[in-house]
């Protein structure tokens, strides 16, 4: 399925009528925010349906397809280095075990983060995945530079003290903010507010996760309490998020239960928040959400959105 067919309902030419002079005066950061008004294909941990997640192979493949953003999680090693890794512990996607923050970068670099993928997905196995190393954020930036945009989650900030400071310093060092090449996302509102305090120009995405309440499973709640549940959320709740964030990222299902609907998306947008949905892998679900008017999708299979392979 070709990308232009899949995103028919999205207005891709919103700013096509701008004059040459107006375009010349638009800063890269302003242009990035304008681009968020059109549909965004977000490669969740890279092309993680086809290659080991968060490895260079996964990011290179997604970049070749022409995705809008490479999505990643950052954490801190015991010796203060920023690494690209999702889980708090390393056993699921490496040949090691234990908490990632207990390891130095040198120790993490000795791990194999690719062979597991071949073992779990023999139909997609590739010998070049074997021995894949954990990436540092610097390595990812140095590899793709400003040829890519990055959608970065501050992962488990309570387990990664100093994460926000290290991240902002690295973004500034690589000129990722003013050049319009990064979004920072988190489920933790405090983490986003800390990033905002460090550099108010960093565009932020508030992640939310809706699920049934433990006390009353007929009532939906948000994981961290940053908003009420989708049935109770108000314009004022969305506006409170819009005071510091440029968008909202949400699940649309919990197990087999749909937790948001088209009206949620429309209400968020009317309050200045583009809506990005995670993590959507089936073409039928992609089409359904695009019909609802979402502004972007996180997916392990960006090729199913882009029609690249």
Please describe what this structure looks like.
Helices cover 32% and strands 18% of the residues. The radius of gyration is 19 Å and the shape is globular. The strands form 3 sheets. The protein has an 8-stranded parallel beta barrel, surrounded by 5 helices. With 309 residues, it is an alpha/beta fold.
Side by side, the strands of the main sheet go 1-2-5-6-7-10-13-14
Give me the strand/helix succession: HHHEHEEHHEHEHEHEEEHEEEHEHEH
Gyration radius, in Å: 19 Å
Shape: globular
Overall pLDDT score: 93
User: Ranges with pLDDT <50 over ≥5 residues?
Assistant: 1-23
Give a brief outline of the structure.
This protein is 32% helix and 18% strand.
Structural features:
single chain, 309 residues, alpha/beta, 8-stranded parallel barrel, 14 strands, disordered N terminus
Write the layout of secondary structure elements.
Elements: H1 3-6, H2 20-25, H3 28-35, E1 40-43, H4 56-65, E2 69-76, E3 82-84, H5 105-109, H6 115-120, E4 135-136, H7 137-144, E5 150-154, H8 163-173, E6 182-186, H9 189-198, E7 204-208, E8 210-212, E9 220-222, H10 235-242, E10 247-251, E11 253-254, E12 257-258, H11 262-270, E13 275-278, H12 283-292, E14 296-299, H13 302-306
Helix pairs in contact: 8-9
């Amino acid at each position: 399925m070709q990308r232009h067919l899949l995103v028919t309902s999205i207005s891709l030419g919103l700013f096509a009528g701008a004059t040459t002079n107006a375009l010349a005066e638009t800063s890269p950061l302003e242009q990035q925010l304008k681009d968020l008004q059109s549909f965004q294909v977000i490669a969740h941990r890279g092309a993680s349906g086809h290659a080991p997640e968060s490895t260079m192979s996964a990011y290179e493949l997604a970049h070749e397809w022409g995705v809008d953003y490479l999505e990643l999680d950052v954490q801190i090693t015991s010796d203060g280095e920023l690494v690209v890794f999702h889980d708090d512990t390393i056993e699921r996607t490496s040949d090691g075990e234990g908490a990632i923050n207990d390891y130095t970068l040198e120790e993490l670099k000795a791990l194999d983060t690719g062979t597991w993928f071949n073992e779990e997905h023999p139909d997609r196995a590739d010998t070049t995945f074997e021995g894949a190393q954990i990436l540092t954020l610097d390595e990812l930036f140095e590899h793709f530079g400003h040829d890519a945009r990055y959608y970065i989650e501050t992962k488990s900030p309570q387990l990664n003290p100093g994460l926000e400071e290290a991240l902002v310093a690295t973004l500034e060092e690589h000129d990722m903010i003013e050049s319009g090449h990064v979004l920072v996302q988190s489920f933790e509102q405090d983490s986003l507010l800390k990033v905002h305090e460090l550099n108010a120009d960093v565009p932020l995405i508030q992640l939310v996760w809706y699920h049934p309440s433990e006390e009353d499973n007929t009532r939906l709640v948000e994981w961290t309490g940053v908003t009420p549940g989708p049935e109770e959320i108000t314009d004022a709740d969305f506006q409170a998020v819009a005071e510091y964030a440029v968008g909202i990222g949400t699940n649309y299902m919990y197990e087999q239960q749909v937790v948001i609907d088209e009206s949620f998306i429309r209400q968020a947008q009317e309050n200045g928040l583009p809506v990005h949905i995670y993590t959507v892998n089936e073409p039928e679900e992609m089409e359904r959400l695009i019909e609802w008017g979402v502004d972007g999708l996180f997916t392990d299979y960006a090729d199913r959105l882009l029609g690249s392979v």
